[in-house]
Design a protein that fits this description.
This protein is of the alpha+beta class. The chain has four helices and seven strands. The chain folds into two domains: 75 residues, PH-domain like; 80 residues, no CATH class. Helix content is 47%, strand content 19%. A hairpin with a 2-residue loop joins strand 3 and strand 4.
């Protein structure tokens, strides 16, 4: 029995040109912050603070502390929790949009291409060829892919500019550890 002859797969389009918008930058920064919140040290700290607070609440049900101490402990816990919520949903997006307006490089169309060797990013200000081995990490969600130069500096690629085949091809090419 002979195998059917199939045509070689079409060469994948490994380049996209797009214009970033402020919401892309907000989305990228939210993804970055969510990845930071999932870091082991932050999780351990959050769990310890929450357990300490719950221990305080349980202990004070039978023997109330002085009123001032109760106010301080409850206030510190709830203000801390609320401030993270406010920062993530309100302060950070507002500041990120401001930075987007200030950063001239974000105002120009951007071309990002990839290969088995790395990514190439260019706009009218210049070009950066980044081998996979030089990238620190990468992260993604359903809206954005981030390529990290370091723990805080990244290139962003909105998934809205890619088709499913390009996303699959990009995943096959990436040789940098992913942030879980």
């Amino acid at each position: 029995m002979t195998e059917p002859i199939t045509a070689p797969p079409q060469a994948q389009n490994r380049s996209v040109t797009f214009q970033l918008d402020p919401e892309d930058y907000v989305t990228a920064n939210k993804l970055h912050v969510r990845k930071q919140y999932r870091r082991p040290l932050f999780l351990v700290f959050s769990i310890c603070v929450t357990l300490a607070y719950l221990g305080f609440v349980i202990m004070t049900r039978h023997r109330p502390p002085p009123e001032l101490i109760g106010i301080i402990v409850h206030g510190a816990f709830w203000v801390g929790a609320a401030s993270m919520f406010v920062a993530y949903f309100f302060t950070m997006p507002r500041q990120t949009r401001k930075v987007f307006r200030e950063q001239k490089g974000f105002q120009y169309p951007l071309t990002l291409s990839w290969s088995e060797d790395g990514i190439d990013v260019q706009n009218q200000q210049g070009r950066a060829a980044l081998p996979w081995g030089d990238l620190f990490r990468w992260a993604e969600d359903r809206h954005m892919i981030l390529f990290y130069h370091s723990s805080r500096i990244f290139h962003m690629l909105p998934r809205r500019v890619l088709n499913d085949a390009q996303v699959d091809d990009l995943h096959r090419c990436i040789k940098t550890p992913k942030i879980k």
